[in-house]
Structures are given as structure tokens and as C-alpha cells.
Amino acid sequence: MVGTGEPVMGSRRLAGLLASPEGPGPAYRHWAEAIGALILDGRVGLHVRLPAERELAAALGTSRTTVTAVYDLLRANGFARSRRGAGTWTALPEGRAPRAVRRLLGSDEAAIDLARAAPGIPEDVLAEALALAGPRLAEHARTPGYHPFGLPELRALVAERFTARGLATTPEQVLITSGAQHALTLVLGLLAGPGDRVMVENPSYPNALEAIRRARLRTVSVPVTDEGWDVEIVESTLRQVVPQLAYLIPDFHNPTGCLMPPEERARVLAAAARSGTWLVVDETMAELALDVAAPPPMASMAGAGQVVTIGSMSKTHWGGLRVGWVRASARLVRELAAQRVAVDMGGSVLDQLVALALLERSGGSLAERLSVLRERRAVLMAALGEQVPGWTWRVPPGGLSLWVDVGAPVASVLAERALGRGVRIESGGCFGTDPGVFEQRLRVPFSLPGEVLREAVQRLAGVLDGGAVVSAADRRVHWIA
After folding, report:
1. Cα separation, 169 vs 330, whole angstroms
2. Within the chain, which residues score under 70 in pLDDT?
3. How many helices (H) and strands (E) does the chain have?
4. In angstroms, what CA-CA distances link 308 with 168, 190, 202, 434?
5. Residue range 323-338, pLDDT digits in tens
6. How many CB atoms are located within 10 Å of the residue 448 CB?
7. Is the pTM here over 0.85, yes or no?
């Protein structure tokens, strides 16, 4: 049961998320549907107390009667619950899943999945790793099996890999986590508190943005375009806002694929040091260098700066392992481990032993994976060029996806109609820090086999032919209202 101690959504903040009603129908219905969508998207959290009717009416410039009708419809549809004299709280309707959950599960397992930019793992590679992990698991069976810092041998190997990349690291500076998302959640919980400002890129990784919102942190965004970062904006944001923390993906940025140049990294690090901001650097894509040399860790340039690096096996090996890590000072790792035991006490020993086996043999296998990704990227670009020549993109030097401009603000509609043709894909809006942005963009991964990518693009082209006015010359999209 919710109570008066729950978080409160300010009236001006909620009004800022709601666009002016457009199209047929009463205004209260448009606003109720918009609030429901914000709850499903995670932009308005669950069990958050909504503003008083009079306050929201003033912020929206409408009557209290209209807001009363909004709340009535939210309650009727299961998006809100009220208690007399205490207020109204957000809720999730029976049978509805938040977008963050739907993104992972999918509503149609038979559909081609372009919503998740993550590779599978060859069966023989996984079988070999399991065979190597078996004897080691028997040795661990005599122990209680709790390792809040992670298996010592895995911590040592991750530390060696950082050192080999140019960042001297000891095992005491590594915490093994249940994936990069778990790592980020632990870091947010330790280094920031409700109401603190966090600088994020726009666009950025949706699940990271979701974690930041659920920690009740206030985001301040800096743009990442096809050309990369505007470092002057980053510097001025750090100087003027002085955020407690900044979350960055400088290595083959998700979703744009951009790689931050060394000189820009140095400027960002210096600006963060001046403002006292913790930098959380997401390296989950760092090894996926397709056209350039893999970059050294950003923290290797930091000196004594406040830099935390997170990484995982999900993008380079297999997301099903749920193995990630934090690289930070030994003191901070101890504090993170103390916070971690309140959640899961330690990760799966078997998963960590499999991860250990995969990392031990990853030198040769990484080159093979990168070669496969280059081939799949080429197949995807060729298929897009043939089927939808009006779409444009920059070729990313690494990563797992293209950040495609479809030529018109129709990405959400296109993604919705694509599901009816058996393709799951995320619109660019899922990667934005604010509603309604990046509607001209689709993130199109190239992690699937070539023949599957060709079929997916053909189906997407069919969506355009079937639901839009399309120029026969170049398939530029002009949607019917």
C-alpha cells in the first residue's frame, strides 16, 4: 500500500511532459491517455503521487473539472488509485507490462527481433565453456558459494584485461555484478540520492535512463549527433549545473555508434574534475571496434579523477550469462559490495565460471565475432539501400547497430505497424530523454544473421508500401494523418 511518504510528481513537471491536446475528442481524454503512456514508458514512475487537481489545472491552464475527469479516467483504466483525503497515485493496469519489460520479453516470439542489439552465442562455444567450468564448479561445491565481490579468479582476469588495455588495475578494484545494468544501479544508489542531477547523453541507452529515473534523479541532457559530442556544451553543463554524476557511453555510443576522440575525452575528464562530478563510463560496447582500433579505457586518462567504469559480457559474448563488472578504486568497490549484499549477496558461481572460460579464450574468438559483425553490417546496409533508399545513416566505426534517419517523424507509427508484419523494432523516441524526440530515427541492429536481416528490411519496406504514401522514386515517407 502506498502512503504519504511516497514520491510526489510536481504539477509543473507533469504539465511539461504533456503536450497540448490535438485532434478530435475532449482534452481530458488526450491527457489521460498521455499520462498512461508516460507510466508505461517509465517516464512517470509507479506509486508516485500525482499533483493535486487544483495545482495541475493551474499548470495546464485548464479547469479543475477537466483534471478531475483526467484522474477519473486514469482510475477507470487502472493507471491510478486514490484514497480519500490522501491523494492519487500512479498504478499499472492488470495485465499491462511497462515498456522496459516489453522491450526484453517481446509480445511475439515468432517476430524478427530488431529491438534488442545483442548477439547470440554459438552452441559449440558455449558447450566448450560449460565443459571447462564443470571441474571448477566441483571445486567450489565445497564452499558456501557466496562471493559478494565476485569470484577471485574472475576479478583477477578482468583486472588483467584492464591493465592490458592501458589502465593498471588490481583485483581489489573490480566488483563482479549481474550485468552492466546491475552495476549501474549499484553505482547510482551509492553515489547519488533522490533529487540529485545526473548528466546524460541524448539519445542514450533506454534501460540506463530508466534506472536513473527510478532512482528519482533529475536528468540534464547533452546532445549526441551523427557527428558526435559537442564538448563545449558538455563542459558548460558540467560547469553551470554541477551534476553529482554523469553517465556516458564514449565507446561506440548506443544508439548512434559514435566514438569520442581522445582530445574530447581529456576535455570531458578535466571539466568533470573541476565540477567534482563522478563520471560513470559505460564500456559495454568498447571491444566491438569494427573499423578502428579498440579505444583504451577512458579512466586511463583520468589520473586521480572520480571515474567509475562499468562493463559486461552481454554485447561481446552473451546476455544470458548476466555477468558484468565495476572498475573503481578499492575503497569504492568495498562500499559497492556492502550495498550489493542487501540485494543479492553475490552472483551465480556457475555463470561466473562460464564467463571466466569465455574470457580466457576470447582473444581469437573476438576477432571472429568482429568479422561476422562487419559482414552483417554490410548486408544490412545493402538491404536498406535497396529496399528503402530514402533512409540515411552514418556508418558507425563499431558497436551493433545503425542509427537510421527515416526522413519524417514517423518512427513510432512505423515500429507499431512493423510488429503486425513480424518485426520488433524500437523507435528513436525510446532513446530520448524527453518525449517526442528522435521520431525520425530507428535503431536497426546488425547482430542477427544476414538472411534474417534481409527479410526484416523487406518487411519494413512492406510496411511503408502498405501504410503510407510513398514516392516510387525513393520511398520517402509521407504518412496519411
Report:
1. 10
2. 1-7, 23, 97-109, 304, 363-364, 435, 466-481
3. 16, 16
4. 14, 12, 20, 26
5. 999 999 999 999 999 9
6. 21
7. no
Q: Which of 284, 360, 348, 292 is nearest to 321 (CA)?
A: 348
Per-residue b or e along 291-318, where b marks 16 or more CB atoms closer than 10 Å to that residue's CB? eeeebbbbbbbbeeebbbbbbbbbbbbb
* Amino acid type, 374: R
Q: What are the helix (H) ranges across 77-205?
A: 99-105, 123-140, 152-164, 180-191
- Decide if 219 contacts 198 (C-beta within 8 A): yes
Instruction: Tell me how far CA of residue 151 lies from CA of 169, 317, 338, in angstroms.
Output: 16, 19, 16
CATH 3.90.1150.10 correct for 107-116+368-478: yes
In angstroms, how far apart are the furthest CA atoms of the chain? 70
Which amino acid makes up residue 332? L
Phi, then psi, of 334 in degrees rounded to 5: -65, -40
Where do the CATH 1.10.10.10 domains begin and end in the chain? Answer: 11-90
For the record, the C-alpha cell of 294 comes out as: 579498440
How crowded is residue 143: how many other Cβ atoms within 10 Å of its Cβ?
9
Tell me, which fold does domain 124-362 have in CATH? Aspartate Aminotransferase; domain 2 (3.40.640)
Query: Using an 8 Å Cβ cutoff, are 339 and 189 in contact?
Result: yes
The CATH code for residues 11-90 is 1.10.10.10
pLDDT digits 0-9 by tens, 219-228: 999 999 999 9
> And the C-alpha cell for 257?
555508434
At 82, phi and psi to the nearest 5?
-130, 155
Rg (CA), the chain: 23
Distance separating alpha carbons of residues 137 and 472, to the nearest angstrom: 61
For residue 2, how many other CB atoms are within 10 A of its CB? 18
Per DSSP, helices labelled H in 193-329 are 206-214, 231-241, 262-275
Measure the CA angle with vertex 309, ends 118 and 279; round to 5°.
115
